[in-house]
Amino acid sequence: MSLLSVEDLKVSYGPKGRSFNAVDGVSFTVEKGETIGVVGESGCGKSTLGKSILRLIETAGGTIRLDGEDITGLGHQAMMSKRRRMQMVFQDPFGSLNPRQSIGKLLDTPMRAHGIADKAERQKRIEYIIDKVGLPQTSLTRFPHEFSGGQRQRIGIARALILRPDLLICDEPVSALDLSIQSQILNLLTDLKAEFSLSYLFISHDLSVVRYFADRVIVMYLGRVVETADHETLWRDPRHPYTRALLAAVPIPRPGSRKHDAPILGERQSAAAASAGCRFYQRCPMAQNRCATEEPVLRSVDSGHGAACHYA
Amino acid sequence: MNAHSPRPSATAAAPGVAPARKKKTGSRAWRAVRHNLPFLIGASILLAVALIAICAGVLYPGDPRDMVTLPLSWPLTDNEYPLGSGSLGTDLASGLAHGAQASLLVGVSAASVGLLIGILVGAIGGYFGGIADDILVRITELFQTVPTFLLVIVLVAISGPSLPIIAGAIGVATWPTVARLVRAEFRTLRSNDFVLAARSLGYSTTRIIFGEILPNALPPIVVTTSVLAANAILTEAGLSFLGMGDPNLVSWGSMIADGRSLLRTEWFVTALPGAAITLTVLSLNLVGDGLNDILNPRSESNR
């Protein structure tokens, strides 16, 4: 059984009648110990996807299963035990920590809210986890503003791990950090994955980060999955024209090596203006008449490799 | 993959944060206080008034309304009654001390009532938004359109003039200021990621509102509270001046009313309680201004 399985998930924004689906029929699974990378440009719904799995945003349709149990309709109380099992690391290390709480309190409150009454036990866990994320014990009495961005992200990770979850949803965890700090945090996440046998849903717009990190990659465009494959296949043999364009856009640090073989035409459409055909139709370099009228479904093009394109 | 790379970097970065910054918050706030002269002046006046109010019963054990000497003796003429006497031979010094008690009591309790209602209404409206917010905003506006003083007079006229009623009425008339402020703060703060993090950790709504958001909204609320207390003192004085104060207590407002007809000859009967009100209200405003600077981490005096 998959740790997390999402089926036909829909999330809509906007007032009734004029709403649009920011996430539109997304399905995927996360196995135990697996790292799934979700990539796509900003506005493609990848952050919304992560938040809706944690039920921070109401879903408009589809099901989310944790260990096979449907958690889509659970109330606050019933959701509590599920929240212990999946946690989130946020993008902004400055906004995601309450500036008025010491690090000790930041880490203590989640356990109190989840009914861990034994103070000594809580203290032990705090000291253990702060050590695991590579911060000194003296950090516990200090406040978030006394730390750098990278250190704060470590605190955010510690907070996410304090309830011992199985699944960590990382929403662009390194995109707000300097390049040199990014690799430290990625290494930390890799270490912690082995240590706590975690699964990750790793959301990022940065392909090189996902490439380093993910076992399997989901490429999203305007709320839909356009391609999914294990990371080696995806880099060796991308099928969807959008994925090809994304890969071609990754800069290669060698002079004169810039390739122009998969251009994207024009601007990204608004998800609200999505028409009947393929959502990528207007920007696609290989679009045909059929693409304007018939929306391609995600189909298997190889074992474990799916693409939503008529010509993949 | 290099499994140990995060560790050395963390320890390397640690000394940058570690040395001698343990009591940073405390010492910085204290430094800001010491360099803020208006705040220090305001706080000392307020402290002095509070001290006099607390000691009033010990310093002047008798009823301040009792006739103790000849009426209208000028200040500094009688050693026993250094501040002179009122139109009925009451000791003005005793009246001022007991009046301080009444004024501060009204100021503190009215501000507390206003704070309590204002925070509740503002927090609920600001955090939840939607229909609840719409309704609460309309109610707030309803209270705000009614002139404060008029509303207090009506409430006191209905329920009878006693100190708790007066304080409560002033609180009920002034909470919209707090509510609007708290609502605005909550609307900004609720979209912060730390609130989202709190929700994802499964915190209850009560815990999020009072444990996570409210502490971040406190600085402007504290500042407003001091102004609220000052206004409450003024309103009570006005009420007593009109003869609608608590008849069993001497307040600064009733003392001014007592001296009203004597203004051209025995002006000190009015001037002394008037000065007391001015000084107290001024000190509260100075404290409020000072707190604004001290609590705001980006203000000049904090560097």
UniProtKB/TrEMBL annotation, chain A:
GO cellular component assignments: plasma membrane
Keyword list, A-Z: ATP-binding, Nucleotide-binding, Transport
GO molecular function, one term: ATP hydrolysis activity
Compartments it resides in: Cell inner membrane
InterPro entries associated with the record: AAA+_ATPase (IPR003593), ABC_transp_ATP-bind (IPR050319), ABC_transporter-like_ATP-bd (IPR003439), ABC_transporter-like_CS (IPR017871), Oligopep_ABC_C (IPR013563), P-loop_NTPase (IPR027417)
One Gene Ontology term from the biological process aspect of the record: peptide transport
Predominant location category: membrane
Domain ABC transporter: 4-247
Topology in the lipid bilayer: Peripheral membrane protein
Domain of life assignment: Bacteria
Protein family membership: Belongs to the ABC transporter superfamily.
Annotated PANTHER family: D,D-DIPEPTIDE TRANSPORT ATP-BINDING PROTEIN DDPF-RELATED, TRANSPORT ATP-BINDING PROTEIN
Name of the protein in question: ATP-binding cassette domain-containing protein
Source species: Neorhizobium lilium
Taxonomic lineage: Bacteria, Pseudomonadati, Pseudomonadota, Alphaproteobacteria, Hyphomicrobiales
TrEMBL record, chain B:
Topology of the protein relative to the lipid bilayer: Multi-pass membrane protein
Domain ABC transmembrane type-1, first and last residues per copy: 100-288
Keyword match Transmembrane: yes
Keywords linked to the UniProt accession: Cell membrane, Membrane, Peptide transport, Protein transport, Transmembrane, Transmembrane helix, Transport
Subcellular location: Cell membrane
Any one GO biological process: transmembrane transport
Biased composition range(s): Low complexity: 8-19
Family matches, as PROSITE patterns: ABC_TM1
Main location: membrane
TM region positions: 37-60, 104-128
A GO cellular-component term linked to this record: plasma membrane
Keyword Transmembrane set for record: yes
Region feature Disordered, mapped onto this chain: 1-25
Matching PANTHER family: D,D-DIPEPTIDE TRANSPORT SYSTEM PERMEASE PROTEIN DDPC-RELATED, OLIGOPEPTIDE TRANSPORT SYSTEM PERMEASE PROTEIN APPC
Family from the record: Belongs to the binding-protein-dependent transport system permease family.
Name of the protein this chain belongs to: ABC transporter permease
Native source species: Neorhizobium lilium
